[in-house]
Amino acid sequence: QVQLVESGGGLVQAGGSLRLSCAASGSIFNGNSVAWYRQAPGKQRELVAVITSGGITNYPDSVKGRFTISRDSAKNTMYLQMSSLKPEDTAVYYCNFFPPRRIGPTNEYWGQGTQVTVSS
Q1: FRET partner for 114 with CA separation of 20 to 30 A, picked from 12, 39, 73, 108?
Q2: Residue 36 pLDDT > 90
Q3: What's 117's DSSP letter?
Q4: DSSP secondary structure of 43-77
């Protein structure tokens, strides 16, 4: 079972930037779309960025123009560059396939994620 480990979160002021990383335990990008998701307190998990196996990216309007998803196949790592952060971007951020799959040794859909907190 592939493992995905998120990192790079933290506390940042509104207008600031962060880059999240997602390290995979193996090669996952060939033939697969991968994505970043987030879940804010009291809200449902939502998709924030997708990159297909062909490199096509897609974003919801809420982050379009501010977030950029990318991947490094040689490092089995994907990234989420976030800029012009807003308090409403505060959430736990997760990486997974698109659509999501069970991952890791616990065979759950979601790992620990990485917390992003944007202060106003």
Answers
A1: 73
A2: yes
A3: E
A4: S--EEEEEE-TT--EE--TTTTTTEEEEEEGGGTE
**Residue 89 confidence (pLDDT):** 98
Could you give the angle at the alpha carbon of 63 between the alpha carbons of 37 and 58, nearest 5°? 70
- Tell me which DSSP letter residue 10 carries: E
CA distance 92 to 21: 13
Report the chain's C-alpha Rg in angstroms.
Answer: 13
Contact between 9 and 116 (Cβ < 8 Å): yes
Report angle CA 23, 75, 9 to the nearest 5 degrees: 35
State the SS3 of 73-112.
HHHCEEEEEECCCCHHHCEEEEEEECCCCCECCCCECCCC
Angle at CA 119, nearest 5°, toward 19 and 81? 15
How confident is residue 116, by pLDDT bands cut at 50, 70 and 90? very high
